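Translate structure to sequence.
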């Protein structure tokens, strides 16, 4: 059993981002506010019935975070979680859809792990950081949010890390989950869940920065220059194909040849719906590419597929293991086929 006192403790990790940015004096805004200052600026947080601790972890924009930062964050969070109800991470929104998914792949405990940020910096009218932080803390402290894995709380919505995407450059409701919608909402300080994920996926080893997976988009008239330029220099490739998983016909044999030597994942640049498997039969179609050895990302968008492949390679996964992992993570295979049997640790699983 968890110590009841620990249930109301939430640890906030500050990583920077717009939520912490203030005018620089030489133009524009840059991260400067500490996690302590962020927490102090939230109206209503003192009445939330939560004991807050803060960790100033990084002070950078979202685009400058790397795999080592996320691996270190996971480790720091894991050290806190046996003694907390949950954690909140504040960071730049530009990469929240990525960091949250990486954290979700590593987060094998039942406590909620919540990532949030802001679209409007604190010097702007209607800055959204304080409301997002308050809602994030409420979710992190909520027993209902246990076993959801890593979630993104933004504009009072709760999104699963593996589904969420940043879909707008400026509006406060910038986060959406095209495949399934939000898991729930925060209203009057309470968590309301509309649904839960039907499965979760864990990987034992964290990602490192010495693996290279290229995200290669294709588009009208693509002559393959980008593909040819990267193919020999990376450990794997994710193709952001058009539509349901299609590329120009002349790229199909080139992708097939690469897939003989390294993993090539077929994802859709539409970022909604699944890559198909049995519908189209033209050269460059999903049937053609899968027959040539590409691996389907299914419902995973190209950005998440890149992170999964990267972390699988960091876990020494061979081609068959990568294919099995993608079959599950893509939403197309029995979750029992996930190659790692990582037990969720923590009180709920005792
Ligand atoms: N636009 C970003 C943000 O919302 C900047 C960043 O990702 O740091 O935080």
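Result:
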């Amino acid at each position: 059993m968890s110590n009841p006192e620990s249930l109301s403790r939430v640890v906030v990790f500050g990583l920077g981002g717009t939520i912490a940015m203030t005018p620089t004096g030489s133009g524009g805004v840059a991260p400067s506010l500490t996690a302590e200052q962020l927490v102090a600026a939230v109206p209503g947080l003192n009445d939330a019935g939560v004991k807050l601790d803060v960790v100033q972890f990084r002070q950078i924009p979202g685009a400058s975070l790397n795999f080592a930062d996320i691996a270190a964050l996971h480790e720091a969070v894991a050290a806190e979680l046996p003694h907390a109800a949950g954690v909140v991470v504040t960071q730049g929104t530009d990469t929240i859809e990525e960091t949250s998914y990486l954290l979700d792949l590593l987060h094998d405990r039942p406590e909620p792990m919540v990532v949030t940020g802001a679209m409007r910096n604190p010097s702007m009218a209607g800055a959204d950081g304080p409301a997002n932080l308050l809602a994030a803390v409420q979710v992190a402290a909520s027993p209902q949010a246990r076993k959801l894995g890593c979630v993104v709380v933004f504009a009072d919505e709760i999104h699963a890390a593996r589904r969420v995407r940043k879909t707008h450059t400026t509006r406060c409701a910038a986060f959406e989950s095209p495949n399934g919608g939000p898991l729930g909402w925060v209203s009057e300080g309470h968590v309301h869940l509309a649904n839960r994920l039907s499965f979760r996926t864990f990987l034992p080893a964290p990602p490192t920065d010495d693996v290279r997976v290229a995200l290669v988009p294709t588009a009208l008239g693509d002559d393959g220059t980008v593909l040819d330029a990267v193919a020999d220099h990376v450990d794997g490739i994710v193709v952001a194909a058009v539509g349901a998983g299609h590329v120009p016909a002349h790229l199909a044999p080139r992708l097939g040849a690469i897939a003989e030597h390294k993993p090539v994942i077929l994802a859709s640049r539409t970022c909604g719906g699944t890559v198909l498997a049995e519908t189209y039969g033209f050269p460059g179609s999903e049937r053609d590419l899968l027959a040539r050895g590409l691996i389907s990302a299914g419902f995973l968008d190209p950005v998440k597929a890149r992170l999964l492949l990267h972390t699988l390679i960091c876990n020494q996964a061979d081609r068959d293991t990568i294919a099995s992992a993608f079959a599950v993570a893509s939403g197309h295979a029995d979750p029992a086929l996930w190659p790692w049997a990582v037990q969720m640790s923590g009180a709920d699983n005792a």
